[in-house]
Specification:
43% helix, 256 residues, 16% strand, alpha+beta, two-stranded antiparallel ribbon, elongated, 6 strands, two-stranded antiparallel sheet
Amino acid sequence: MTKRDEAKQDYLAGMKYKEIAEKYGVTLNTVKSWKTRHWNKESEGAPVEKSVHTKTKKCAHKKELHPAIQELEDSDLNAKQKAFVIEYVRLSNATQAYINAYESSYDTAKVNGSILLTNTNIQNAVKRLHNARMAEQSVGVFDLVDGLIKESKADIRDLVDWGHDDIEVTDEETGQTYIKKKSWVALKNSDQVDSWAVKKVTVGKDGPLLELHDRNKARDRLLEKLLGKGVFADGDGNQQVNINMDSFEEKNDGDN
């Protein structure tokens, strides 16, 4: 029996690699080599130890959709119509939404985008997504109306102070003194005012410039909602006011 065979018996009996190497006067690597190259391949030797690697099955996790998007996905609209709805809610532009969804030319999209918006199912889908989007942003119909009201009622005196001071001036030629009025303008501190109506504040060579949103435009929008679109209407003739929430939707002219 060779030294390697004797070492094998010791290995099967449970002796450590280091102990076998010291007993037979060989290196630790030699013992490991015997085990790998010979002992594991011989039928009467130690069984070959196989490492088992568990393969992880790759599963595509389905992304959870927003309920409003999921409702759109489950609707009877075709794929391009669904894409149009999403793009229209995102852009508020029927022509561009049609171009993005149908990959069409501008002229075709300008016509067909408006036509799609006359489809009742598409109108309902747009409305549901629009309402869901506004709800997520914590913006309600009254927030929008309140903003228009603030713009329409904006008073420059709430934001700016102005006036004049009496200054005593001496005429250099006559030596006589007289009172001169010197005008001044001062912006109020930003933390003291409601800045909703402010469109822009700049500082130029002549001093600060305060620009407000167009008050008349805001009033026209309110009148449109109050009168033109019938947002407010007498209910039963008893001074009761009914509010039609749906009519606060933005006016559609095809491209806006």
